[in-house]
Structures are given as C-alpha cells and as structure tokens.
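User: Modeling request: complex.
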Amino acid sequence: MRAADCLTLERAADAVGGRVLGDGDVVFRRFAPVHDAGPEALALLADRRYAGDLEDCGGCALLVSEELCDLEAGPPDRLVVPDPYAALLVLVPLLHPEPSVVPGVHPAATIHDSASIPVSAAIAPHAVIAAGVVLGENVSIGANCVIERGTSIGADTVLFPNVTVYADSVVGKRVVVHAGTRIGVDGFGYVTEAGNHRKLPQVGGCVIEDDVEIGANCTIDRGSIGRTVIGAGSKLDNLVHIGHNVQIGPRSILVAQVGVAGSTRTGEGVAMGGQAGLVGHLRIGAGARIGAQAGVIGDVAPGETVSGYPARDHRSYLKAMALLMRLPEVMQRVDRLERRAVERDAR
Amino acid sequence: MRAADCLTLERAADAVGGRVLGDGDVVFRRFAPVHDAGPEALALLADRRYAGDLEDCGGCALLVSEELCDLEAGPPDRLVVPDPYAALLVLVPLLHPEPSVVPGVHPAATIHDSASIPVSAAIAPHAVIAAGVVLGENVSIGANCVIERGTSIGADTVLFPNVTVYADSVVGKRVVVHAGTRIGVDGFGYVTEAGNHRKLPQVGGCVIEDDVEIGANCTIDRGSIGRTVIGAGSKLDNLVHIGHNVQIGPRSILVAQVGVAGSTRTGEGVAMGGQAGLVGHLRIGAGARIGAQAGVIGDVAPGETVSGYPARDHRSYLKAMALLMRLPEVMQRVDRLERRAVERDAR
Amino acid sequence: MRAADCLTLERAADAVGGRVLGDGDVVFRRFAPVHDAGPEALALLADRRYAGDLEDCGGCALLVSEELCDLEAGPPDRLVVPDPYAALLVLVPLLHPEPSVVPGVHPAATIHDSASIPVSAAIAPHAVIAAGVVLGENVSIGANCVIERGTSIGADTVLFPNVTVYADSVVGKRVVVHAGTRIGVDGFGYVTEAGNHRKLPQVGGCVIEDDVEIGANCTIDRGSIGRTVIGAGSKLDNLVHIGHNVQIGPRSILVAQVGVAGSTRTGEGVAMGGQAGLVGHLRIGAGARIGAQAGVIGDVAPGETVSGYPARDHRSYLKAMALLMRLPEVMQRVDRLERRAVERDAR
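Assistant: Request completed. Predicted assembly structure:
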C-alpha cells in the first residue's frame, strides 16, 4: 500500500487486521491523541486513564483497543484492534511516508580526498568528513555534522544535524543518531599527583553496533584503552551519558538523562528509567530493570528490578519509603511506650 | 535614556525611582556582586547572606535594598531601592545595550530557494535553512544552526549558534533559543516484539509558543502523533529534556537538567527545581512547585509543593528525612523497651 | 623515546621503571583491559575485582600492580609496576602519539577581519570566528565551532568540533573543550511580576582558567553581573551544568551530569560524583566530596563527605538508609510492645 493523503476506516482496518465499529467510510488524514484531535484526525485511545478526554474529543473516528472499545463517549466510528500502538506501526507510514533523502554531496560540505563516500550517500551542507572516513551505502550525514579521521559508518545509517563523531569510531548499519550527539569523546580519566590531575590518554575505541538509535545531545565516550560498546538494537533517549569502557548489552532501553559511569557492563535487554545513574565497574545482569532516578552503586542480578538511592529491590524500597512517612507516628508511639514504662516502674 | 559608558548614582536613582545615601555624584561603569566588585563597579547586595562580603567590597558604591541599607561595612555611597533585581532590569541596559544584529544573509549560509526570509532577518555563516522554512521579521539565526524543512519561526525570535530545529516545527514570536538546543527531535517510542524494539514513527508536531526562552543543549521532542507544546512565556534552563506529547503550561519555570517524560501535561505557572524528573502521563496542576531532584511518579494538585523520590508534600518529606537520621536512636530505644519488658515478665 | 608501532616488555619496563616477570622480549602493539584484550595487547590489571577476567584473557602480556602480580591465571609474561595507571601515562603516548594539528585557517572557515589569529593556530572548516576575537599560539578550533565577538582564548587550547563560546568570554591556556560544549551562555535569571518572567540581562563574564578540561555537551553560564569562574586545573566530565556567577575552585573534579546552581562557590580540590546537584548560593569548602546523585541544599565544610537528598554526612546517610530497610521490622516490634503493654494493664 502506497502512502496517501487520507484513509478510510475500512482501508485502515484491512491494513492492520482490525474491525470497524460504525461507519467504515469515514475518512481521516492524520493521527492525534484524544485530547488534541481535530476533525480530520483518527484519535488514539490506548490507555484507560485518557478515557476522560473522550467527552471533548474532536476527532472523526477512534483507534481503540478491544478492551476500551465500548466506552460511550467520543466518536462512534471506531477502528478496534488488539494493540493500538502496533497498529500505528503500520498505519502511520501510510499517511506519513519517510522523507526521501536525495543522494549526493552538497557543494558546501567539506570532504577529505581520502574519505570513501559511495554515490548513494547523502552529505548535507557544511558537514565535514575527515581523512580516511569510510561511509556505507545510503548513509545520510546531516548538516554541520563532523566525522573525524578514520571513522567508519555502516550502510543505511542516518546522522541528524550537528553530530560529532570523534576519530576512529565504528558506527554500525541502520543506526540513527539524533542532533547534537557526540560519539567517541575522550573518557574522564586522570591520575592525581599532589592534587594535580594528569590526563590518562584516551585512545580506546567506540563501537555503536547495528540498529542502535541514539537520541539528541547524548555523549558516548571512547574507551581509555579497550572499547566502549553500545550493543545491537539498543535505544538511547536524549541527553544520555555513557562513560569510557562501558558495555551496554544488546536490545537495551536507556531513557533520557541516564548516566552510566566507566567500565560498567550491562547484559542483554536491560531497561533504565529516566535520570538513573550507575557508578563505574558494575555488572548488571540481563533483563534487569533500573528505576527512574535510581542510583546504582552495586551489581544487579539478572531480571532484578531496583530503585532508589542506593538502589535496592524496587518493592522493598517503595514500601520502606511509605513507612518513612509514618516515622513521626512511630516516634510518638515509642515516646508513649517509654512514658508508660516509667510510670509503671514508679508505681 | 540612551546607553552610556558610565552613570552617576544620582542618574541611576532617577531612572529607577530610588534614593541615594551619601554622594550622588559617584560614577560607576559596571555592575558586580559584592565579593567580585572592582573600583568602577556598583556592587549589588540583595541578600543578607552576602553581607559578610561587604568588608572586602572593592566597589565604588552599593545597590542595596531598604532592608539592608544600614549595614555599616562596605561602600558608604548607596543607591537604595525596594527591589535591587527589579532595579537591575532598568539599570543594566543603560550600560550594556543589546548588541545590534545586522540584517542580511551571510554569503556562507546555505538557504533553500523555497525558504521565505524577510530582509530584516539576520542569518549567520554556515546556517542551513531548508525547503519551505518561513521566518518572521527580525529573526536572527546564529552560525551553524540548522532549520529543517517546513519549520516556521515567528518575528523577533533569536536562535544562538549550533541550534537544530527539526522539520515542521513551529516556533513563536520573541522566542530565545540558546546554543546547541534541539527542537522537534523524534520522541522515544518503540513497540517491543520478542525483545526487539521497533520504532513508532514520530510524526507529531513541536510547538514553542511566544516569549519562551530555552537554555543551551536542551532537547524538546516532537509529538509521536499529536503535539509537544511549550506554553507561552515559559522559561527553560540548560540541559532540560521534554519528552514527546508533553504540554508545559504557560509561564512556567524549569531549572537546569529537568526531565519531563512523554505525555505529561502541566498547568500554568508551574516551577520545577534543578534535576527534577517527572515520569510520563502525569497531570501537574497550575502553580505546583516541584523541588530540585524530586522524582514525581504521580499527579500533583494545583499549588502543591513536592519533593523527594517518590515525590510527596515537601514539608512532610523533609520532616521524614530528618527523622530518618534519628533511626539509629529509635532502634536503640525499641531495643531497650523490649529488654525491659522481658525483665519485667521475668520478675 | 619516539612513538613506535610496537614495544617489548623490556623497553616498556625501562620507560616506566618497572620489572619484568617472564619473557621481556614479548612484543605488544596496543593496550586493553583484561576482558577485551587481543593477542597483540598488553592487558591492564589494576583492580582485584577484574582478576576473574584473567582466565579468558587473550593478551600477550600483563601490566599489573605489585599487589596482583602473583595471580596464577592470565598471561605469564608481565610488566610489574607500583601503579599501572601512572605507568599508562608514560606508555600510552609511546604507541599512540597525539595526532599533530596542522596550523592554518581552512578556507571554509569564516573569520572576521578584526579577529587576531596567530599563524600557529589551526582553524577547521566552517568554524566561525567573530569580531575582536583573540587566539593564542597553537590554538586549535574544531570544525563548526562558533567563537563570538570579543572572546579571548589562550595558547595551546583545543576546542573540539561544534563548540560555542559566547561573546566576551575568557578561556585560558592549555584548556581542552570537548564537542558541543557551550561557554558563556546567558544565565537563568528572571524577575517575576504578576506571573510574567522578565529576563534580567546577563552581562557578566565567563572565565575558564588555565589547564581546565571540559567534557562534551556541557553548559557554562556567564555571570548575570560579575563572573562565572572555572578554577585552574579543574576537570569537568560530560553534560555538566554550571550556573551563572558560580565559582568552581581550582583542581576540582566534576563527574558527568553534575549541576551547580547560580552563585555557589566551591573551594579548591572539591570532588562531585555523577548527577550530583547543588542549589544556588552555597559555600562548599576545600576538599569536600559530594557523592553521586547527592542533592546539596546547605553549605558543606572543608573536607566533608556528603551524600543523599538532602545531602548529609555520607556514612550517617548510608547507615540511615540501611536502617530504613528495617522499618517494617521496627513497626512490628513497636506493635508487639504496645499489645504487651495493653495486656499487662488488663491483668
């Protein structure tokens, strides 16, 4: 199915294997959340907590899960699917095709003679490609990016504007790097002598494996010696910091503003909530879940869920924090018990 | 009053409606805090905690509040006002006029033919303005900025250097965006199937309303579907992260390194302290105050002040944390009560 | 000793004053951590917690401390030194010479006529040097950097790509600034009148003293009035935020994602762990240590170590947090004591 200006509920249902409630000929041109839907929008309702927004929903139809499809308020014409987000994976590209990238090197880019640039690559204005850089097929380098000497970037990878990749980094295939991210930065390593900090040369590698996506304004350090590695298929949100020699396992999720200090290694499929921090030299087991803002100062076992500072088992932590709020009461009760004991002894 | 090289205390007092203690003919050429004031500086004392710096104050005169104007130490010649900061709003521009921006497109900028650039706009070197971009009157685009296709930017807006605005974003009038900030970035949305994370296309809008100021190296995601909105008159400090579909109410204050996760909506005039984090899908009421480093995982009522992780009423939290430090003592008292009870039972 | 392609253990031992165990003729070409060492690597073992990696170490030889040199597993040929990191300070440059910077202004850079650029300076493509900028000898300005009017940069300073230095900043000698960092940004200061935030003009200075290194994507605000100062020899990791009028003492260490709010002053040799936050207007004594993620809301005495939010003495905090996890037990014990007291009274 080719991209189009509009869709009917019926065609959309065919595309995702859903069913229509009401009029299948209703036409929509865009998608929107329930509270922000104009008259040409298919409104998304995937979560019961937004059911209250249905009253004022301006959308022409509703994309809704089986579970919520019977709610009375809101547009009566509905596309019902098991998982609305999975349906969006199919539907959004039908109305919003990926903008096509025009191959070629913009004349305002600066490319070193020794760089290897296939004709299928697209290099935007004012990008700088240094000596010995090797780009794969269909690579797209955004405006004002700087790719330093000796770096290689795999096929079909996209760098948004204003990205810096330091020398000798290795970026895989189908990687997406958002604006302003820095890859292969010198790690933070000093030897302190009499209060003066002498820099340890940071000469290790930085490897971004295939199918990684990195958000905007992230910083990924190179190894001091050895390598920093972001495992295949992992996704990093904005403003994430990865220290030198860190190894992030494949298919992990790091939410915005996470920081991982040097030499920590994490297993496959680890999830880290926003603003979580991990000190250096830890081992985090596969499938572990680190809560938002958690401060992890010890190893985490595979599959474990931790939160708080210092991070511990998530449920115990929340329970303890709830009891913490009852401390004033506990203090009073202990006071009373002591007074009672004194009175009894006096009798 | 035109900008000048120097001012007398008397003229400054006229400009702000203050009164002079001592010699009104004293001349100053700059402003400085008390501890860092040279002989040509009007030293600012607005807060009693800096009174101790008065002893060594090198300034030629003092700008001071009524409340603190009688302190003995420091320069005897003084400009006394009700609110020194409000006075600075008037006085600083008299000595430090805004640098004038010279309109015109620098020849080293790259402008697409289809972009609309008024003659009053200033485009610095190596800026890139893509197809279909529309700029308002007097817009200033800093060096090495990248404005992607279809974005519109309202009159009198200033982008400092190295900013990226993704495609189809909408930036209002009189907005200020500091260096390295990214607007309209793809949100962080994936559907996970068998451990693999498939990206949900991020095709929503990103709207920065009028009179917003955004600090350096911030990241503002576009909506997945629907829009991300930064409300009119809101001010964001550096390194702030705003997730997709977030709506920040007008006239809010977000201090440095705050993170707001996807789909959270905040009311008018909310204040968030530095490094505070809000998880997704929350509602934060108008006028709420989120403490520095707070971790907010539930809705916050209008006007409420919260802190801690998980965030709660600020006073209760601080009280509980204070009691927490007395836990060792509580444990001892409980031990003692138990021993006493055992002894009594033994008698 | 000139840089070389490879070294023998013997020559390396001569260079650092270490001793060889086993065969001094073993040749290595690179350095690596024990777990990531190929056959041509001298593997580094400096910390007992990595001893377990020795079993699978693929390196041809081991660089090891006296304390760990007798471990049986791993390469038998060893270079034994008192401090392996100090040895790396000497050894790494022998195999990895600093890339030489070629002096000269790239034709695709944009330099204002009034800027002062010595012939020894290196200006990369698409850098922008504004009016009145003064660069010292051997300064290296990376691609797509923007140095605004009136800024001075001392000799031997290196700016990596995509850095912005705002107007009238002062950067010292031998400073290193990593990609995407912003120096001299407007501070975050507003006067709020009837809910509207009016910006206080930010006209102070921003001073980076000699021998400072600043990581990637940091933000250093200029003073509002007065100056922001990063003291000589201090080292800042990535994504650090420094507010206006802050003074960081010399030879301090600020780990990634630290935030220091306006007007706080810190003494010499302070260390701040990752993601730590300091509110404004504090005094932090020389040699103080701020734990990772600590939230500091009060002054810290010289030499003190604090952690937690609100930050307190580190040991007390950790002890209290450990007891916190025993609160459920305390509650049960208090319940039991109360029941016992009631029963006794009933008797």
